[in-house]
Amino acid sequence: MRLRVVGAGVSFAGGLFLAVQARINGGLGHVLRDGFLAALVSFGGGLALLLALVPTAAAGRAGLARLRSALRRGEIRWWHCTGGACGAFLVSAQGLTIASLGVAAFTVSVVGAQVISSLLVDRAGLGPARAQPFTWPRVTGAVAAVVAVGVAVSAEFGQPASLWPALLPAAAGAGLGWQQAANGLVREAARSTRVTTLVNFATGTAVLVAVAAVDVAVRGLPTAAPSSPWSYAGGALGVVAIATAVVAVRWSGVLLVGMGQVAGQLVGALAVDVVAPAGGGRLTAATVVGTVLTLLAVGVAALPDRRRSAAREPGAPAGGR
């Protein structure tokens, strides 16, 4: 029990790193005036760090070899390795919208959409786990998450021009469901979280290189860049956040780690908006209430269905779904 609590605390810390990453990438995009270049800097920094760590280690090379073999045998398809494209979209959304939306509202929008996406992905059985049926806690949590997002951005309902940025992180959050499913299949094939992370960052960086090339061709290079080295730490923070989940999952399991990380993101986002608010963002009571409701909604979605549990008495067959 003690290790489970420690694991939840570690994953909570990982969520805090993700909230800080969002603020850094948002600030970088604001200074560069280009969210796509900011995303490329973040992903490229994370990829450089992983390239220095993974292929140089024997365990990393072994994981890469297992993944290559699985691809050749058809046990996993090439498009399962494209989960990083969804991550690239998320980081691009950070650079494009946080300066005007604020970290808290951004995070609530992402989490709300992510809950619904995960519900659908689980139902379709797209990940390594078997298909999960719709249960009342999952559906109730998803609906509550949508309501919570509406509450969080309700202050902007009368200003459509201010509301639309919330749609972009919501779309990015919806993509996270597929990213998690795809990365889960890659992790099973490589039997290495580090290799999965490297593949994720490599795919995302490749997508962002192509997008940024078109963006620069149309708009030109930015005329200013941040001088502080902290402005370029987003990629490293993303890698650290994933590493905390890798450590914690050994003690707490995937579900508790995921819940701890989401809680860390939400609390961290509120703290960032208080300590270092984005230029155009403001912390409102509606945002705080929406954040709390989203956290509660995620908790409800994670509850077991007691009726289904009661139906499976000791000695009853486990299959039959």
| Computed CA radius of gyration, to the nearest angstrom | 20 Å
Mean pLDDT: 79
Poorly predicted regions = 315-321
DSSP strand content: under 5%
Number of helices: 12
**Which term fits the overall shape?**
globular
- Give the termini distance in whole angstroms: 30 Å
**Helix proportion:** over 70%
Total strand count, please? Answer: 0
Describe the SSE topology.
Blueprint: H1 2-32, H2 35-53, H3 58-73, H4 84-101, H5 103-124, H6 136-152, H7 160-163, H8 167-190, H9 193-219, H10 234-275, H11 285-301, H12 306-311
Helix pairs in contact: 1-2, 1-4, 1-10, 2-4, 2-9, 2-10, 4-5, 4-8, 4-9, 5-6, 5-8, 5-10, 5-11, 6-11, 8-9, 10-11
What does this structure look like?
It is a single chain. It is globular, with a radius of gyration of 20 Å. It starts with a helix and ends in a 10-residue tail after the last helix. 76% of the residues lie in helices and 0% in strands. The protein has helices at residues 2-32, 35-53, 58-73, 84-101, 103-124, 136-152, 160-163, 167-190, 193-219, 234-275, 285-301, 306-311.
Task: List its traits.
321 residues, mainly alpha, Transporter family-2 protein, YdcZ
